[in-house]
Amino acid sequence: MKKRYIALFLTAILILTLFSGCTSSDNQNNSTTTTGIAVKEADNSTFKLSYTQSDSLDPFKAKTQNNQVLASLVFESLFDLDENFEPSANIATGYAFTNSKTLKIDINPQLKFSDGKSLSPEDVVFSIHAAKKSPAYGSGLSCIGSAEAQGSCVIIHLNYPNPNAVNLLTFPIASIKDDKDGFPVGSGRYSYKNSGGKVVLKANTQNGFDPYITTITLVNIAASDSIDNAVNIGNISYAFRDMSSDTSKRLSCAKKAVAMNNLIFIGINHAGETTSNTHIRRAISLAADRQIIAESAYSGYASPATSTFHPDFKSIGSINLFSKTADTATAKQSIIQSTFSGKKLSISILVDTNENKISCANLLKTQLEAAGFRVKIDKKSVKEYRTRIKNNNYDLYIGEIKLSDDMSLYPFFDTKGGAKFGINFKQIKCDDIYKEYLSGKSELGQFILAFNEEMPYIPLVYKKGMICYSKALKGDMQGYYGNFFSNIDSWNFIS
Known about the structure:
Blueprint: H1 2-19, E1 27-28, E2 31-33, E3 38-40, E4 48-51, H2 65-74, E5 76-77, E6 79-81, E7 87-89, E8 92-99, E9 102-107, H3 121-133, E10 144-150, E11 153-158, E12 172-173, E13 190-195, E14 198-203, E15 215-220, H4 224-233, E16 238-241, E17 254-268, H5 278-287, H6 290-297, E18 302-304, H7 328-337, E19 345-351, H8 355-371, E20 373-379, H9 382-390, E21 396-402, H10 410-413, H11 430-438, H12 444-454, E22 458-469
Parallel strand pairs: 4-15, 19-20, 19-21
Antiparallel strand pairs: 1-2, 2-3, 5-12, 6-7, 8-9, 9-11, 10-11, 13-14, 14-15, 16-22, 17-21, 17-22, 18-22
Helix pairs in contact: 5-7, 6-8, 7-8, 11-12
Protein backbone atom coordinates (compact mmCIF):
# COMPACT_ATOMS: atom_id res chain seq x y z
CA MET A 1 0.00 0.00 0.00
CA LYS A 2 2.93 2.39 0.90
CA LYS A 3 4.46 1.78 -2.56
CA ARG A 4 1.15 2.71 -4.18
CA TYR A 5 1.01 6.06 -2.33
CA ILE A 6 4.66 6.84 -3.22
CA ALA A 7 3.94 6.07 -6.88
CA LEU A 8 0.87 8.31 -6.85
CA PHE A 9 2.89 11.12 -5.23
CA LEU A 10 5.65 10.88 -7.85
CA THR A 11 3.06 10.83 -10.63
CA ALA A 12 1.44 14.00 -9.22
CA ILE A 13 4.85 15.76 -9.12
CA LEU A 14 5.49 14.77 -12.75
CA ILE A 15 2.10 16.10 -13.89
CA LEU A 16 2.61 19.41 -12.02
CA THR A 17 6.03 19.78 -13.61
CA LEU A 18 4.62 19.20 -17.08
CA PHE A 19 1.77 21.69 -16.50
CA SER A 20 4.19 24.43 -15.42
CA GLY A 21 5.47 24.60 -19.01
CA CYS A 22 2.04 25.04 -20.64
CA THR A 23 1.05 28.23 -22.44
CA SER A 24 -2.43 29.57 -23.24
CA SER A 25 -2.25 28.07 -26.71
CA ASP A 26 -2.12 24.60 -25.14
CA ASN A 27 -5.69 24.90 -23.77
CA GLN A 28 -8.02 23.73 -26.54
CA ASN A 29 -11.28 21.76 -26.71
CA ASN A 30 -11.96 22.28 -22.99
CA SER A 31 -8.87 20.31 -21.94
CA THR A 32 -5.32 21.08 -20.85
CA THR A 33 -2.86 19.44 -23.23
CA THR A 34 0.75 18.64 -22.44
CA THR A 35 3.25 16.38 -24.08
CA GLY A 36 1.07 13.35 -24.68
CA ILE A 37 -1.21 14.07 -21.67
CA ALA A 38 -4.74 15.60 -21.84
CA VAL A 39 -6.61 16.41 -18.64
CA LYS A 40 -10.20 17.64 -18.81
CA GLU A 41 -11.24 20.67 -16.82
CA ALA A 42 -13.69 19.85 -14.04
CA ASP A 43 -17.20 21.29 -14.40
CA ASN A 44 -18.68 20.56 -10.99
CA SER A 45 -21.19 23.28 -10.17
CA THR A 46 -23.52 23.57 -13.14
CA PHE A 47 -25.06 20.23 -14.08
CA LYS A 48 -28.24 19.55 -12.08
CA LEU A 49 -30.80 16.77 -12.23
CA SER A 50 -34.20 16.50 -10.58
CA TYR A 51 -34.95 13.73 -8.12
CA THR A 52 -37.75 12.88 -5.73
CA GLN A 53 -36.45 13.11 -2.18
CA SER A 54 -39.45 11.24 -0.74
CA ASP A 55 -38.87 8.29 -3.09
CA SER A 56 -36.23 5.58 -2.74
CA LEU A 57 -32.89 5.74 -4.57
CA ASP A 58 -32.89 1.94 -4.63
CA PRO A 59 -33.61 1.13 -8.30
CA PHE A 60 -35.85 -1.76 -7.28
CA LYS A 61 -37.96 0.34 -4.91
CA ALA A 62 -38.11 3.65 -6.78
CA LYS A 63 -41.61 4.51 -8.00
CA THR A 64 -40.96 7.86 -9.69
CA GLN A 65 -39.60 8.44 -13.17
CA ASN A 66 -37.22 10.96 -11.61
CA ASN A 67 -35.32 8.38 -9.56
CA GLN A 68 -35.62 5.63 -12.15
CA VAL A 69 -33.81 7.84 -14.69
CA LEU A 70 -31.03 8.52 -12.17
CA ALA A 71 -30.51 4.76 -11.88
CA SER A 72 -29.07 4.63 -15.40
CA LEU A 73 -26.12 6.74 -14.18
CA VAL A 74 -25.43 4.71 -11.04
CA PHE A 75 -26.04 1.15 -12.22
CA GLU A 76 -25.00 -0.90 -15.23
CA SER A 77 -27.04 -3.72 -16.74
CA LEU A 78 -26.13 -7.16 -18.05
CA PHE A 79 -26.87 -5.97 -21.60
CA ASP A 80 -27.52 -2.63 -23.28
CA LEU A 81 -29.97 -2.15 -26.13
CA ASP A 82 -29.16 0.17 -29.01
CA GLU A 83 -31.75 2.27 -30.83
CA ASN A 84 -32.69 -0.77 -32.95
CA PHE A 85 -33.39 -2.84 -29.82
CA GLU A 86 -30.30 -4.93 -30.53
CA PRO A 87 -28.52 -6.21 -27.38
CA SER A 88 -24.82 -5.76 -26.66
CA ALA A 89 -22.93 -7.22 -23.70
CA ASN A 90 -22.24 -4.88 -20.79
CA ILE A 91 -21.72 -6.53 -17.40
CA ALA A 92 -22.28 -9.83 -19.17
CA THR A 93 -19.62 -11.06 -21.58
CA GLY A 94 -21.95 -13.32 -23.54
CA TYR A 95 -24.96 -15.61 -23.41
CA ALA A 96 -26.30 -18.87 -24.80
CA PHE A 97 -29.57 -20.77 -24.76
CA THR A 98 -28.93 -24.24 -23.36
CA ASN A 99 -32.54 -25.07 -24.24
CA SER A 100 -35.62 -23.06 -25.24
CA LYS A 101 -36.33 -22.08 -21.62
CA THR A 102 -32.83 -21.79 -20.11
CA LEU A 103 -30.44 -18.90 -20.64
CA LYS A 104 -26.79 -19.04 -19.54
CA ILE A 105 -25.15 -15.65 -18.90
CA ASP A 106 -21.36 -15.28 -18.60
CA ILE A 107 -20.21 -12.65 -16.08
CA ASN A 108 -16.85 -10.87 -16.16
CA PRO A 109 -15.14 -11.93 -12.88
CA GLN A 110 -12.91 -8.82 -12.89
CA LEU A 111 -15.75 -6.31 -12.54
CA LYS A 112 -16.09 -4.18 -9.42
CA PHE A 113 -18.74 -1.97 -7.89
CA SER A 114 -18.08 1.72 -7.28
CA ASP A 115 -17.13 0.94 -3.65
CA GLY A 116 -14.33 -1.33 -4.87
CA LYS A 117 -16.03 -4.62 -3.99
CA SER A 118 -16.20 -7.38 -6.59
CA LEU A 119 -19.36 -7.81 -8.64
CA SER A 120 -20.36 -11.44 -8.25
CA PRO A 121 -22.90 -13.74 -9.93
CA GLU A 122 -24.72 -13.73 -6.56
CA ASP A 123 -25.22 -9.95 -6.93
CA VAL A 124 -26.70 -10.57 -10.38
CA VAL A 125 -29.09 -13.22 -9.04
CA PHE A 126 -30.12 -10.86 -6.23
CA SER A 127 -30.79 -8.10 -8.79
CA ILE A 128 -32.84 -10.37 -11.08
CA HIS A 129 -35.15 -11.41 -8.28
CA ALA A 130 -35.40 -7.83 -6.95
CA ALA A 131 -36.18 -6.49 -10.44
CA LYS A 132 -39.00 -9.03 -10.84
CA LYS A 133 -40.68 -7.56 -7.74
CA SER A 134 -39.98 -3.91 -8.54
CA PRO A 135 -42.51 -1.28 -9.70
CA ALA A 136 -40.15 -0.12 -12.45
CA TYR A 137 -39.21 -3.45 -14.05
CA GLY A 138 -41.49 -6.17 -12.68
CA SER A 139 -44.31 -5.93 -15.23
CA GLY A 140 -41.89 -6.52 -18.12
CA LEU A 141 -40.16 -9.55 -16.59
CA SER A 142 -43.00 -12.06 -16.43
CA CYS A 143 -41.03 -14.25 -18.85
CA ILE A 144 -38.28 -14.76 -16.25
CA GLY A 145 -39.00 -17.41 -13.65
CA SER A 146 -35.88 -17.69 -11.50
CA ALA A 147 -32.09 -17.43 -11.57
CA GLU A 148 -29.14 -19.14 -9.90
CA ALA A 149 -25.39 -18.60 -9.73
CA GLN A 150 -23.19 -21.30 -11.23
CA GLY A 151 -19.47 -20.55 -11.01
CA SER A 152 -18.84 -17.32 -12.95
CA CYS A 153 -22.16 -17.72 -14.77
CA VAL A 154 -25.81 -17.04 -14.01
CA ILE A 155 -28.48 -19.50 -15.16
CA ILE A 156 -31.87 -17.93 -15.90
CA HIS A 157 -34.94 -20.16 -16.11
CA LEU A 158 -37.74 -18.81 -18.32
CA ASN A 159 -41.45 -19.36 -17.77
CA TYR A 160 -41.94 -19.91 -21.50
CA PRO A 161 -39.75 -20.08 -24.63
CA ASN A 162 -38.61 -16.64 -25.76
CA PRO A 163 -35.87 -16.19 -28.40
CA ASN A 164 -35.60 -12.48 -27.49
CA ALA A 165 -35.31 -13.00 -23.71
CA VAL A 166 -31.82 -11.45 -23.60
CA ASN A 167 -33.47 -8.10 -24.45
CA LEU A 168 -35.08 -8.17 -21.02
CA LEU A 169 -31.75 -8.14 -19.17
CA THR A 170 -31.41 -4.35 -19.20
CA PHE A 171 -32.42 -3.66 -15.58
CA PRO A 172 -29.87 -2.41 -13.02
CA ILE A 173 -27.40 -4.76 -11.36
CA ALA A 174 -26.85 -3.69 -7.74
CA SER A 175 -24.73 -4.93 -4.89
CA ILE A 176 -26.49 -7.08 -2.33
CA LYS A 177 -25.17 -4.70 0.35
CA ASP A 178 -25.60 -0.91 0.51
CA ASP A 179 -22.60 1.33 1.23
CA LYS A 180 -21.67 2.67 4.68
CA ASP A 181 -24.01 5.65 4.23
CA GLY A 182 -26.95 3.45 3.28
CA PHE A 183 -26.86 4.23 -0.46
CA PRO A 184 -27.42 1.43 -2.99
CA VAL A 185 -24.23 0.55 -4.87
CA GLY A 186 -23.80 -0.03 -8.60
CA SER A 187 -20.95 -0.28 -11.08
CA GLY A 188 -22.07 2.69 -13.17
CA ARG A 189 -20.47 5.96 -14.13
CA TYR A 190 -21.56 7.78 -10.95
CA SER A 191 -22.36 6.83 -7.37
CA TYR A 192 -24.56 8.35 -4.68
CA LYS A 193 -22.64 10.32 -2.06
CA ASN A 194 -23.48 12.44 0.98
CA SER A 195 -22.23 16.01 0.60
CA GLY A 196 -22.96 18.15 3.65
CA GLY A 197 -26.23 16.36 4.28
CA LYS A 198 -27.30 16.51 0.62
CA VAL A 199 -27.26 13.71 -1.93
CA VAL A 200 -25.02 14.23 -4.97
CA LEU A 201 -23.64 12.03 -7.72
CA LYS A 202 -19.88 11.61 -7.87
CA ALA A 203 -18.04 10.27 -10.91
CA ASN A 204 -16.80 6.69 -10.61
CA THR A 205 -13.48 6.96 -12.44
CA GLN A 206 -12.02 3.58 -11.46
CA ASN A 207 -13.00 1.98 -14.79
CA GLY A 208 -11.56 4.73 -16.99
CA PHE A 209 -14.62 7.01 -17.00
CA ASP A 210 -13.25 10.54 -17.56
CA PRO A 211 -16.02 13.19 -17.66
CA TYR A 212 -15.94 16.97 -17.42
CA ILE A 213 -18.83 16.76 -14.97
CA THR A 214 -17.48 14.93 -11.92
CA THR A 215 -20.19 16.07 -9.51
CA ILE A 216 -23.91 16.24 -10.26
CA THR A 217 -26.21 18.24 -8.01
CA LEU A 218 -29.62 16.70 -7.29
CA VAL A 219 -32.59 19.05 -6.92
CA ASN A 220 -35.76 17.87 -5.20
CA ILE A 221 -38.50 18.48 -7.80
CA ALA A 222 -41.31 15.94 -7.79
CA ALA A 223 -44.19 17.46 -9.79
CA SER A 224 -44.17 16.93 -13.56
CA ASP A 225 -45.12 20.54 -14.40
CA SER A 226 -42.42 21.81 -12.04
CA ILE A 227 -39.80 19.69 -13.84
CA ASP A 228 -40.86 21.18 -17.18
CA ASN A 229 -40.57 24.70 -15.78
CA ALA A 230 -37.24 23.96 -14.06
CA VAL A 231 -35.54 22.80 -17.26
CA ASN A 232 -37.02 25.77 -19.15
CA ILE A 233 -35.49 28.33 -16.77
CA GLY A 234 -32.27 26.39 -16.12
CA ASN A 235 -32.85 25.25 -12.53
CA ILE A 236 -32.07 21.75 -13.79
CA SER A 237 -29.93 20.91 -16.81
CA TYR A 238 -31.59 17.80 -18.21
CA ALA A 239 -34.77 15.73 -17.95
CA PHE A 240 -36.49 12.84 -19.68
CA ARG A 241 -40.21 13.24 -20.39
CA ASP A 242 -42.36 10.25 -21.36
CA MET A 243 -44.97 12.48 -23.03
CA SER A 244 -47.79 11.23 -20.79
CA SER A 245 -49.24 14.60 -21.71
CA ASP A 246 -48.24 16.91 -24.57
CA THR A 247 -45.39 18.65 -22.75
CA SER A 248 -43.61 19.53 -26.02
CA LYS A 249 -45.67 22.72 -26.35
CA ARG A 250 -44.63 23.89 -22.89
CA LEU A 251 -40.88 23.36 -23.30
CA SER A 252 -38.60 26.05 -24.72
CA CYS A 253 -35.31 24.27 -23.98
CA ALA A 254 -33.33 22.09 -26.39
CA LYS A 255 -35.20 18.86 -27.21
CA LYS A 256 -34.55 15.47 -28.76
CA ALA A 257 -37.17 12.80 -29.55
CA VAL A 258 -36.35 9.26 -28.43
CA ALA A 259 -38.08 6.02 -29.42
CA MET A 260 -40.09 4.19 -26.76
CA ASN A 261 -41.95 0.89 -26.84
CA ASN A 262 -45.26 2.46 -25.78
CA LEU A 263 -47.96 1.26 -28.17
CA ILE A 264 -51.11 3.28 -28.80
CA PHE A 265 -53.74 0.87 -30.08
CA ILE A 266 -57.45 0.40 -30.73
CA GLY A 267 -58.90 -2.15 -28.34
CA ILE A 268 -61.87 -4.01 -29.86
CA ASN A 269 -64.86 -5.65 -28.19
CA HIS A 270 -65.11 -8.96 -30.05
CA ALA A 271 -68.57 -9.47 -28.54
CA GLY A 272 -69.95 -6.27 -30.08
CA GLU A 273 -72.66 -6.48 -32.72
CA THR A 274 -70.48 -4.99 -35.45
CA THR A 275 -66.96 -5.40 -34.02
CA SER A 276 -67.33 -9.19 -33.74
CA ASN A 277 -66.99 -9.27 -37.54
CA THR A 278 -63.40 -9.66 -38.75
CA HIS A 279 -64.11 -7.77 -42.01
CA ILE A 280 -65.27 -4.78 -39.94
CA ARG A 281 -62.17 -4.95 -37.74
CA ARG A 282 -59.94 -4.96 -40.84
CA ALA A 283 -61.94 -2.06 -42.30
CA ILE A 284 -61.26 -0.02 -39.14
CA SER A 285 -57.54 -0.73 -39.44
CA LEU A 286 -57.50 0.16 -43.14
CA ALA A 287 -59.38 3.41 -42.55
CA ALA A 288 -56.95 4.59 -39.84
CA ASP A 289 -54.33 7.10 -41.00
CA ARG A 290 -51.44 6.32 -38.67
CA GLN A 291 -49.20 9.01 -40.13
CA ILE A 292 -51.71 11.78 -39.40
CA ILE A 293 -52.33 10.42 -35.90
CA ALA A 294 -48.57 10.42 -35.20
CA GLU A 295 -48.07 13.94 -36.55
CA SER A 296 -51.22 15.60 -35.21
CA ALA A 297 -52.42 13.78 -32.09
CA TYR A 298 -48.85 13.29 -30.81
CA SER A 299 -47.21 16.39 -32.33
CA GLY A 300 -44.70 14.25 -34.21
CA TYR A 301 -43.62 12.39 -31.05
CA ALA A 302 -44.82 9.04 -32.38
CA SER A 303 -44.04 6.58 -35.19
CA PRO A 304 -46.74 4.85 -37.28
CA ALA A 305 -47.17 1.20 -36.27
CA THR A 306 -46.73 -0.60 -39.57
CA SER A 307 -46.45 -4.00 -37.88
CA THR A 308 -47.38 -5.79 -34.68
CA PHE A 309 -43.83 -4.95 -33.54
CA HIS A 310 -41.97 -1.66 -33.16
CA PRO A 311 -40.72 -0.42 -36.57
CA ASP A 312 -37.23 0.13 -35.13
CA PHE A 313 -36.97 -3.46 -33.90
CA LYS A 314 -34.28 -4.58 -36.34
CA SER A 315 -35.01 -8.30 -36.17
CA ILE A 316 -38.70 -8.27 -37.15
CA GLY A 317 -40.00 -4.69 -37.07
CA SER A 318 -39.34 -4.09 -40.78
CA ILE A 319 -42.32 -6.25 -41.80
CA ASN A 320 -44.99 -3.90 -43.15
CA LEU A 321 -48.44 -5.21 -42.28
CA PHE A 322 -50.25 -1.87 -42.09
CA SER A 323 -50.03 1.20 -44.31
CA LYS A 324 -48.92 4.46 -42.72
CA THR A 325 -51.73 6.29 -44.51
CA ALA A 326 -55.45 5.51 -44.73
CA ASP A 327 -56.65 3.14 -47.45
CA THR A 328 -60.28 4.23 -47.47
CA ALA A 329 -61.17 2.47 -50.73
CA THR A 330 -59.99 -0.92 -49.46
CA ALA A 331 -61.72 -0.28 -46.13
CA LYS A 332 -64.99 0.17 -48.00
CA GLN A 333 -64.34 -3.10 -49.87
CA SER A 334 -63.83 -4.88 -46.55
CA ILE A 335 -67.19 -3.50 -45.33
CA ILE A 336 -68.84 -4.86 -48.49
CA GLN A 337 -67.40 -8.30 -47.70
CA SER A 338 -69.01 -8.17 -44.25
CA THR A 339 -72.66 -8.87 -43.43
CA PHE A 340 -73.16 -5.16 -42.73
CA SER A 341 -72.93 -3.91 -46.31
CA GLY A 342 -75.64 -1.34 -46.96
CA LYS A 343 -76.50 -0.97 -43.27
CA LYS A 344 -75.82 1.97 -40.99
CA LEU A 345 -72.59 1.15 -39.22
CA SER A 346 -72.77 2.90 -35.85
CA ILE A 347 -69.73 2.56 -33.63
CA SER A 348 -68.44 4.27 -30.49
CA ILE A 349 -64.87 5.05 -29.36
CA LEU A 350 -64.23 5.01 -25.61
CA VAL A 351 -61.48 7.37 -24.44
CA ASP A 352 -60.30 8.82 -21.12
CA THR A 353 -59.27 12.42 -20.34
CA ASN A 354 -55.73 12.20 -21.77
CA GLU A 355 -55.41 15.02 -24.30
CA ASN A 356 -53.40 12.95 -26.79
CA LYS A 357 -55.92 10.10 -26.72
CA ILE A 358 -58.82 12.53 -27.19
CA SER A 359 -57.07 14.05 -30.20
CA CYS A 360 -56.39 10.54 -31.53
CA ALA A 361 -60.08 9.61 -31.13
CA ASN A 362 -61.22 12.75 -32.95
CA LEU A 363 -58.93 12.05 -35.89
CA LEU A 364 -60.01 8.42 -35.99
CA LYS A 365 -63.66 9.48 -35.98
CA THR A 366 -63.10 11.55 -39.15
CA GLN A 367 -61.15 8.72 -40.81
CA LEU A 368 -63.78 6.07 -40.01
CA GLU A 369 -66.61 8.31 -41.17
CA ALA A 370 -64.84 8.67 -44.53
CA ALA A 371 -65.09 4.88 -44.87
CA GLY A 372 -68.82 4.80 -44.07
CA PHE A 373 -69.05 4.47 -40.28
CA ARG A 374 -71.18 6.62 -38.00
CA VAL A 375 -68.95 7.37 -35.01
CA LYS A 376 -69.57 8.62 -31.49
CA ILE A 377 -66.77 9.51 -29.07
CA ASP A 378 -67.46 8.41 -25.52
CA LYS A 379 -65.18 10.41 -23.17
CA LYS A 380 -65.09 9.23 -19.56
CA SER A 381 -63.03 9.78 -16.42
CA VAL A 382 -59.98 7.55 -16.07
CA LYS A 383 -61.75 5.47 -13.39
CA GLU A 384 -64.91 4.92 -15.45
CA TYR A 385 -62.87 4.33 -18.62
CA ARG A 386 -61.02 1.48 -16.92
CA THR A 387 -64.20 0.05 -15.42
CA ARG A 388 -65.96 -0.02 -18.76
CA ILE A 389 -63.02 -1.72 -20.45
CA LYS A 390 -62.92 -4.45 -17.79
CA ASN A 391 -66.69 -4.94 -18.21
CA ASN A 392 -66.50 -5.01 -22.06
CA ASN A 393 -68.84 -2.02 -22.15
CA TYR A 394 -67.59 -0.38 -25.38
CA ASP A 395 -67.16 -0.93 -29.12
CA LEU A 396 -63.63 0.45 -29.49
CA TYR A 397 -61.28 2.10 -27.02
CA ILE A 398 -58.02 4.02 -27.41
CA GLY A 399 -55.44 2.24 -25.26
CA GLU A 400 -51.77 2.56 -24.43
CA ILE A 401 -49.42 -0.13 -23.15
CA LYS A 402 -45.68 -0.19 -22.61
CA LEU A 403 -44.43 -3.39 -24.22
CA SER A 404 -41.31 -5.06 -22.83
CA ASP A 405 -38.00 -4.83 -24.69
CA ASP A 406 -38.34 -8.36 -26.06
CA MET A 407 -41.44 -7.12 -27.97
CA SER A 408 -43.61 -9.68 -26.20
CA LEU A 409 -47.29 -9.62 -27.19
CA TYR A 410 -48.32 -11.62 -24.14
CA PRO A 411 -50.15 -8.57 -22.69
CA PHE A 412 -52.67 -9.11 -25.52
CA PHE A 413 -52.51 -12.90 -25.87
CA ASP A 414 -52.39 -14.11 -22.28
CA THR A 415 -55.61 -14.41 -20.28
CA LYS A 416 -53.88 -12.48 -17.47
CA GLY A 417 -52.38 -9.86 -19.81
CA GLY A 418 -52.87 -6.15 -19.20
CA ALA A 419 -54.36 -5.56 -22.68
CA LYS A 420 -56.40 -8.76 -23.12
CA PHE A 421 -59.75 -6.99 -22.73
CA GLY A 422 -62.33 -7.58 -25.43
CA ILE A 423 -60.42 -10.36 -27.20
CA ASN A 424 -62.35 -13.60 -27.68
CA PHE A 425 -59.71 -16.30 -27.28
CA LYS A 426 -62.16 -19.02 -28.26
CA GLN A 427 -62.61 -17.53 -31.73
CA ILE A 428 -59.07 -16.45 -32.65
CA LYS A 429 -56.04 -18.59 -33.50
CA CYS A 430 -53.27 -16.03 -33.83
CA ASP A 431 -52.57 -16.12 -30.07
CA ASP A 432 -51.72 -19.82 -30.25
CA ILE A 433 -49.68 -19.32 -33.43
CA TYR A 434 -47.75 -16.55 -31.69
CA LYS A 435 -46.82 -18.90 -28.85
CA GLU A 436 -45.82 -21.56 -31.40
CA TYR A 437 -43.59 -18.97 -33.10
CA LEU A 438 -41.82 -18.24 -29.80
CA SER A 439 -41.20 -21.95 -29.21
CA GLY A 440 -39.88 -22.43 -32.77
CA LYS A 441 -42.81 -24.58 -33.92
CA SER A 442 -44.06 -22.10 -36.54
CA GLU A 443 -42.71 -19.23 -38.62
CA LEU A 444 -43.21 -15.53 -37.91
CA GLY A 445 -45.00 -15.17 -41.26
CA GLN A 446 -47.72 -17.59 -40.16
CA PHE A 447 -48.46 -15.41 -37.12
CA ILE A 448 -48.48 -12.22 -39.22
CA LEU A 449 -50.97 -13.74 -41.68
CA ALA A 450 -53.22 -14.98 -38.87
CA PHE A 451 -53.10 -11.60 -37.12
CA ASN A 452 -54.06 -9.77 -40.31
CA GLU A 453 -56.93 -12.19 -40.88
CA GLU A 454 -58.37 -11.91 -37.37
CA MET A 455 -57.26 -8.39 -36.30
CA PRO A 456 -57.70 -8.98 -32.54
CA TYR A 457 -56.60 -5.38 -31.83
CA ILE A 458 -55.31 -2.57 -34.03
CA PRO A 459 -51.82 -1.08 -33.53
CA LEU A 460 -51.82 2.64 -34.36
CA VAL A 461 -48.57 4.37 -33.32
CA TYR A 462 -45.58 3.91 -31.06
CA LYS A 463 -45.21 6.93 -28.82
CA LYS A 464 -41.86 8.70 -28.50
CA GLY A 465 -40.36 10.27 -25.42
CA MET A 466 -38.32 13.43 -25.17
CA ILE A 467 -34.94 14.32 -23.79
CA CYS A 468 -34.95 18.02 -22.89
CA TYR A 469 -31.87 19.90 -21.77
CA SER A 470 -30.33 23.32 -21.25
CA LYS A 471 -29.34 25.19 -24.40
CA ALA A 472 -26.09 26.09 -22.60
CA LEU A 473 -25.08 22.43 -22.37
CA LYS A 474 -22.25 21.62 -24.80
CA GLY A 475 -21.63 18.25 -26.40
CA ASP A 476 -23.40 16.07 -28.95
CA MET A 477 -26.57 14.75 -27.27
CA GLN A 478 -26.58 11.02 -28.08
CA GLY A 479 -28.86 9.80 -25.30
CA TYR A 480 -31.76 7.49 -26.09
CA TYR A 481 -34.40 5.59 -24.14
CA GLY A 482 -32.80 3.23 -21.62
CA ASN A 483 -29.41 4.93 -22.07
CA PHE A 484 -30.33 8.55 -21.43
CA PHE A 485 -26.76 9.63 -20.62
CA SER A 486 -24.88 7.55 -23.19
CA ASN A 487 -22.08 10.08 -23.84
CA ILE A 488 -22.27 12.23 -20.70
CA ASP A 489 -18.46 12.18 -20.48
CA SER A 490 -18.37 14.77 -23.31
CA TRP A 491 -21.02 17.13 -21.85
CA ASN A 492 -19.98 20.39 -20.22
CA PHE A 493 -20.82 24.06 -19.73
CA ILE A 494 -17.25 25.31 -20.09
CA SER A 495 -17.03 28.42 -22.29
